[in-house]
Amino acid sequence: MASNRKPEFEIGSTRGAKGDLDQLLGGGRAKKSTAAERKMNAYVDPEVQAAAKRAQHWTQLQPEGYRTFSDLVEEALKRVTKELEEKYNNGQPFEEIPGSDGDKLAGGRRLGT
Q1: Average pLDDT over residues 3-28
Q2: Between 20 and 30 A from 108 (CA), which of 2, 3, 10, 68?
Protein backbone atom coordinates (compact mmCIF):
# COMPACT_ATOMS: atom_id res chain seq x y z
CA MET A 1 0.00 0.00 0.00
CA ALA A 2 1.49 3.33 -1.05
CA SER A 3 1.84 6.01 1.58
CA ASN A 4 0.69 9.56 0.94
CA ARG A 5 3.01 10.78 3.69
CA LYS A 6 5.46 13.42 2.55
CA PRO A 7 9.10 13.10 3.62
CA GLU A 8 10.17 15.33 6.48
CA PHE A 9 13.21 16.32 4.45
CA GLU A 10 14.82 15.48 1.18
CA ILE A 11 18.39 14.29 0.88
CA GLY A 12 19.52 16.05 -2.25
CA SER A 13 22.61 16.29 -4.34
CA THR A 14 21.83 19.86 -5.31
CA ARG A 15 24.52 22.11 -3.93
CA GLY A 16 24.25 25.88 -3.78
CA ALA A 17 26.28 28.27 -5.89
CA LYS A 18 29.78 28.10 -4.46
CA GLY A 19 32.15 30.34 -6.46
CA ASP A 20 33.29 33.09 -4.05
CA LEU A 21 32.10 31.08 -1.03
CA ASP A 22 34.62 28.33 -1.86
CA GLN A 23 37.43 30.88 -1.86
CA LEU A 24 36.23 32.44 1.39
CA LEU A 25 35.94 29.09 3.17
CA GLY A 26 39.04 27.54 1.66
CA GLY A 27 37.40 24.66 -0.17
CA GLY A 28 36.00 22.64 2.74
CA ARG A 29 34.06 19.42 2.28
CA ALA A 30 31.53 20.57 -0.32
CA LYS A 31 32.03 19.10 -3.74
CA LYS A 32 30.48 19.64 -7.10
CA SER A 33 27.51 17.47 -8.00
CA THR A 34 28.12 14.84 -10.59
CA ALA A 35 25.77 13.20 -13.03
CA ALA A 36 25.99 10.07 -10.86
CA GLU A 37 24.51 11.81 -7.80
CA ARG A 38 20.78 11.52 -7.36
CA LYS A 39 18.25 13.01 -5.02
CA MET A 40 16.59 10.68 -2.54
CA ASN A 41 13.87 10.93 0.09
CA ALA A 42 13.83 9.44 3.57
CA TYR A 43 11.50 9.54 6.55
CA VAL A 44 13.41 10.66 9.64
CA ASP A 45 12.24 11.39 13.16
CA PRO A 46 11.80 15.20 13.39
CA GLU A 47 14.03 15.42 16.49
CA VAL A 48 16.85 13.53 14.75
CA GLN A 49 16.45 15.73 11.67
CA ALA A 50 16.54 18.95 13.71
CA ALA A 51 19.58 17.84 15.73
CA ALA A 52 21.49 16.89 12.57
CA LYS A 53 20.64 20.21 10.89
CA ARG A 54 21.78 22.14 13.97
CA ALA A 55 25.02 20.14 14.15
CA GLN A 56 25.77 20.81 10.48
CA HIS A 57 24.92 24.50 10.74
CA TRP A 58 26.98 25.24 13.85
CA THR A 59 30.05 23.23 12.77
CA GLN A 60 30.19 23.96 9.04
CA LEU A 61 33.25 26.22 9.36
CA GLN A 62 35.15 23.77 11.56
CA PRO A 63 37.91 21.65 9.95
CA GLU A 64 35.81 18.49 10.29
CA GLY A 65 32.46 20.19 9.73
CA TYR A 66 30.22 19.67 6.71
CA ARG A 67 29.51 22.63 4.47
CA THR A 68 26.12 21.28 3.39
CA PHE A 69 23.48 19.09 5.00
CA SER A 70 23.75 16.76 1.99
CA ASP A 71 27.47 16.30 2.70
CA LEU A 72 26.72 15.36 6.32
CA VAL A 73 24.01 12.87 5.29
CA GLU A 74 26.22 11.32 2.60
CA GLU A 75 29.08 10.81 5.06
CA ALA A 76 26.72 9.30 7.65
CA LEU A 77 25.35 6.86 5.05
CA LYS A 78 28.88 5.88 4.00
CA ARG A 79 29.91 5.21 7.60
CA VAL A 80 26.86 3.11 8.45
CA THR A 81 27.10 1.18 5.17
CA LYS A 82 30.78 0.40 5.82
CA GLU A 83 29.95 -0.68 9.38
CA LEU A 84 27.21 -3.05 8.14
CA GLU A 85 29.49 -4.47 5.43
CA GLU A 86 32.19 -5.12 8.04
CA LYS A 87 29.79 -6.72 10.48
CA TYR A 88 27.63 -8.80 8.13
CA ASN A 89 29.54 -9.29 4.86
CA ASN A 90 33.24 -9.72 5.69
CA GLY A 91 33.92 -6.08 4.80
CA GLN A 92 32.74 -6.56 1.22
CA PRO A 93 30.01 -4.57 -0.55
CA PHE A 94 26.64 -6.31 -0.48
CA GLU A 95 25.26 -7.88 -3.66
CA GLU A 96 22.78 -5.97 -5.78
CA ILE A 97 19.19 -6.28 -4.58
CA PRO A 98 17.24 -8.73 -6.78
CA GLY A 99 14.49 -6.95 -8.68
CA SER A 100 15.70 -3.52 -7.55
CA ASP A 101 16.24 -2.17 -11.10
CA GLY A 102 19.22 -0.04 -10.09
CA ASP A 103 18.02 2.77 -7.85
CA LYS A 104 14.60 1.52 -6.84
CA LEU A 105 14.14 -0.97 -4.06
CA ALA A 106 11.93 -3.94 -4.80
CA GLY A 107 8.40 -3.60 -3.44
CA GLY A 108 6.64 -6.04 -1.17
CA ARG A 109 7.32 -7.47 2.24
CA ARG A 110 10.68 -7.13 3.96
CA LEU A 111 12.91 -10.17 4.12
CA GLY A 112 12.12 -12.43 7.06
CA THR A 113 8.52 -11.25 7.54
Answers
A1: 42
A2: 10
